[in-house]
Amino acid sequence: MATTATCVLPSVRCSASNHPVSFKVSDLNTAISNAVKLTKRKQEKSNLATEANKAIQRASLAILNSLVDSIFQFTDQPMHPSQKNFAPVEEIGELVKVDDCQGEVPKDFPEGIYIRNGPNPLFGGLKNAESIFGKTDSLWVEGEGMLHALHFTKDSEGNWRFYYKNRHVETETYKIESVMKKPAFLPVAEGDAKALFAGLILNKLRFGQDNKILSNTSVFEHGGKHYSVAENFLPQEIDLISLETYDNWNPSGSWSRAFTSHPKKAPGTGELVTVGFEPIKPYCVVGVISADGKELIHKLDLQLDHCSVFHEVGVTQKYNILIDSMLTLSTERVLKGGQLFKYEKEKDAKIAVIPRYGDADSAKWFRIEPCVTYHLMNTFEDGNEVVVRGCRANEPILPGPDWGEDKFDWFSRGLTFNSVNSNNESAPGSKEEGMLFATVREWRLNLETLEVKERDVTQTEYSMDFPMINTDFIGLKNQYGYAQVLDSLASSNAGKTKFGGLAKLYFEEEEAEEAGEQSRNGEGNVKIEYHWLPKNNFCTGSAFVSKPGSVKEDDGWIVTFVHDEDNDTSYVLVVDANKKRFADEPVAKISLPQRVPYGHHGSFFTSTT
User: Fold this and answer.
1) What distance in Å separates the CA atoms of residue 512 and residue 280, rounded to the nearest whole number?
2) How far is CA 61 from CA 31, 56, 57, 201, 202, in A?
3) pLDDT > 90 in the chain, percent
4) Closest to 235 measured CA to CA, from 210, 213, 205, 268
5) Residue 438 — pLDDT band, cuts 50, 70, 90?
6) Cβ pair 83, 9 in contact under 8 A
7) Each residue's pLDDT tens digit, 258-281
8) pLDDT for position 60
């Protein structure tokens, strides 16, 4: 689908074309001379050496920054009008009271904070960088993290009160660019090989980091503290009320690498299981953190011969679960003229089942049909089998097309399949084009025979992703799952994902009208209910909120941030998650004081006061 791009944001350009900066060897001599003059003020020899070193480092950084400003030009990535709500917003400031609530939040809904993370790039949007070395781009998932929080509180008379606030996650690299007041980190996720290599080196020399710390994907709790995270760095501790960013979290100082966006608490012990991957050895390390968050109690090098992307880790009562889809990262590939990311579909996709405190030899690997799976719905033990459920597609939506291919056209073709709207009408598309179509897949892994049984539990009618369950059942056998449903027509037109509804999956009930049909291994699809949003309304960051004191798995609500593209307004919906009421009208709609861009994952944290 070829469409002419129209930028809906004012251009932001920070480069030598605006403010030319030249540098000479004499500049270095002058800087060093000034550094020496400064250090002469110090009387002690040790202080003299320290101050001289710092001054030389500052001079070197200034010269490197001048070099980048002279050679590289930052330009805005084009944004189509249909992508308007992917554009960043400003911070709103202090907590804002929200008075517009249609419907009624139930009395037994818990007090707490609904928070969602997502990219909110500085300086107007994502950037490209062009230079004599070539061009590099930012990926669509990049951009500084911004937290959007809606507080659910009651006054002294038991009446609901709502307050909204948003704020950037102030990582170390966010602070660097905020002080510089311009883009500084060169994009290094994809691009021309020489430009990628130059960007990696210059970012490292100037800032000690290959790339920006994104922290834009999810928010999780552990040991009574809350963290913002993306899998390219450590998590950052945040304050849920002020949304202030504290320090990076490195349990007992023993975790020396990035952190998955979706760590999981092990059922029973409350220990946190994480995974970190890097394109240098060791490529993949699994960690287990104590329930209080103070100690890394187990660390495992899986001894892989490649670096794969592990967006999420699964847990059961005894095991840690990883899906290796062979979406790999390789700096060696960049040195040879290739790309950092590559989907090696010709290689075997596998699932690892690893004893909680096991070593590499104790892991069992199960070969599965080729697929790309970022998100897990749940994993659990069922007799002598481990059951894994997640959302799978034929091609990776991250990083996207091969370098040089038209991104908008590629995403538009990949997201084409069926449209979703409030009238539940569908428009058939081309299965060949819909390579990003995602189904919920179930893998049953026999620990004794190493046999694998796999099936799609959802049909090819609607694509769905961003799965969620009642978090009390993480790692345990569950009956229900929920997911966001893609509006394929709107997504194809925008070249980005837009979710027009929610789905509820009944894993212990087959779809009645499909009972006579069988899937490829003789098992039928599960029953699914849908909750459709109004036309041109799309949701992100959906989360399950369980009813306090209830033992029923689906006794609760789904909360989700929604944007109305016709009116350019945003709101939070509260949907009854119970059986037979899921498809009904939402129980409450809470209008927000400003636009909330589409983002990534949300969580609800119940108040403890």
Assistant:
1) 50
2) 11, 8, 6, 13, 10
3) 81
4) 213
5) very high
6) no
7) 999 999 999 999 999 999 999 999
8) 79
In whole angstroms, what is the distance from residue 585 CA to residue 506 CA? 20
Query: Quick check: helix, strand or coil at residue 340?
Result: coil
In this predicted model, which residue has the larger pLDDT, 421 or 530? 530
Residue pair 114/559 in contact (Cβ under 8 Å)? The answer is yes
Q: How far is CA 241 from CA 88, 238, 249, in A?
A: 22, 9, 19
Q: How many helices (H) and strands (E) does the chain have?
A: 7, 37
Q: What residues does 88 pair with on adjacent strands? A: none
Angle of the 25-39 helix axis to the 45-71 helix axis, nearest 10: 150
Beta-bridged to residue 287, according to DSSP, are 274, 299
Question: How far apart (Å, rounded) are the C-alpha atoms in residues 340 and 342?
Answer: 7
Q: How crowded is residue 562: how many other Cβ atoms within 10 Å of its Cβ?
A: 24
Distances (CA, A) of 255 to 178, 234, 275, 286, 304: 28, 9, 10, 10, 18
Separation between Cα atoms, residue 564 and residue 570, nearest integer Å: 6
Tens digit of pLDDT for each residue in 16-56? 333 333 334 344 334 434 443 444 444 445 565 566 566 66
Q: Are 227 and 89 in contact (CB under 8 A)?
A: no
Q: What angle do CA 141, 349, 312 make, to 5 degrees?
A: 40
d(CA 481, CA 439): 13
Q: How do 96-98 and 101-103 pair as beta strands?
A: unpaired
The residues with which 321 forms a beta bridge, in sequence order, are: 314, 353
**Cβ contacts of residue 303 below 8 Å, gap of 6+?**
282, 360
The fraction of the chain above a pLDDT of 70, given in percent, is: 85
- Phi, psi values for residue 25, rounded to 5°: -60, -35
Evaluate whether 141 touches 187 at the Cβ level (below 8 Å).
Answer: no
What is the mean predicted confidence (pLDDT) over 459-480? 96
Residue 416 is encoded by which pair of tokens? 């084409």
Q: Which own/partner contact pairs does 544-548 have at CB distance under 8 Å and 24+ positions apart?
A: 544/468, 544/469, 544/470, 544/471, 544/482, 544/577, 544/604, 545/109, 545/110, 545/112, 545/114, 545/604, 546/110, 546/470, 546/471, 546/472, 547/108, 547/109, 547/110, 548/108, 548/110, 548/606
Residue 580 pLDDT class (50, 70, 90 cuts): confident
Q: Using CA atoms, how far apart are residues 77 and 192, in angstroms rounded to an integer?
A: 16
274-315 pLDDT per residue, tens: 999 999 999 999 999 999 999 999 999 999 999 999 999 999
CA distance 134 to 384: 54
Residue 508: exposed, middle, or buried by beta-carbon count in 10 A (0-12, 13-18, 19+)? Answer: exposed
Q: What is the distance between the alpha carbons of residues 534 and 520, in angstroms, rounded to a whole number?
A: 35
Considering only CA atoms, which of 251, 211, 212 is closest in space to residue 235? Answer: 251
pLDDT at 510: 84
The candidate with the shortest Cα–Cα distance to 60, out of 177, 175, 176, 206, is 206
